Amino acid sequence: MEEQEEDEGAGMEREQMSPYTDQGESPPAAPPGATPTLSTVGKPEIPKNWKSGTNIVICGKTTGYARIESAKEEQFKIIITARLSPNSRQFEFSNGQDHMIFEAEKPIPIYLHSRFFTSMQEDCNAKKVISAFYGGSKIPPEFTLNIRGIQIMSKIRSVQLNAEQLHYVDQILKWHPIIIGSGPFGSGKSMTMAMAAVLAARKVPSRCHLLVTHRTELLYKLEKWMEQTVTTQ
């Protein structure tokens, strides 16, 4: 175990125990920078999350916090190199003693300020819901369902065309072979074509009119509008 200092890893709690212990005969005193070898029963297996940067806790005669720098398998041993945290200066790697290795739990930051929680009133709905969820009394059905119906009248929206649109429709109704119209987005080109098609169909029902739109939603709206217009007028 390399007894080097590092800023992180202090104050960690033990979360997951490793099955690896330092066993066997008492080795000589470990000089600074030495690497401990951890032997296991059977084929060694390093946990997947035990990699460089993982915080660990070493428990023996004393407890130390450290961070893994490397972990590798060698025959029936697992060799771990780690750096001790600044709070583990008193840690001693005792010769001939078993040392349990734990994965250190990451500290949970506390963001709650003072008086974050306040007591809820007894008659508030939030307290009733929380009490019911956590084994409290059931929420009594002390309420009346009052749904007010809103009557919606089917109404055809009237369409008012401007001078340019009326000229376009007039040219179609006069059966000109080629008519070209242009306008910016949202200027009412599609509605003008729909109005012209409806009026032309009324004038000569046997003719076929082709409408082309660039959006499916617009085609659906025009279709509904034309159905209502043709059937009601």
Quick structural summary:
The protein has helices at residues 125-133, 163-173, 189-203, 216-232; strands at residues 13-17, 37-39, 55-59, 63-74, 77-84, 100-105. It is an alpha+beta fold.
Structural commentary:
- This protein has 233 residues and is α+β, with helices and mostly antiparallel strands.
- Among the domains are: 13-105; 163-232, no CATH class.
- The protein contains four helices and six strands; from the N terminus they run ββββββαααα.
- The chain has a six-stranded antiparallel β-sheet, with no helix packed on it.
- Helix 2 runs parallel beside helix 3.
- The N and C termini lie far apart (93 Å).
Estimated share of beta-strand residues? 15-25%
Gyration radius over CA: 40 Å
Average residue-wise pLDDT: 65
Return the string of H and E elements: EEEEEEHHHH
- Biggest sheet overview: 6 strands, antiparallel
- Give the proportion of residues in helices: 10-25%
Class by helix and strand content?
A: alpha+beta
Q: Could you state the oligomeric state of the chains shown?
A: single chain
Task: Estimate the global geometry from the Cα principal axes.
Answer: elongated
Spans where pLDDT lies below 50 across 5 or more residues: 1-39, 145-154
What is the number of strand segments? 6
Count of helical regions: 4
Reading side by side through the largest sheet, how are the strands ordered?
Answer: 1-6-3-4-5-2
Straight-line N-to-C gap: 93 Å
InterPro entries: P-loop_NTPase
Region (Disordered): 1-46
Biased composition (Acidic residues): 1-10
Protein name: DNA2/NAM7 helicase helicase domain-containing protein
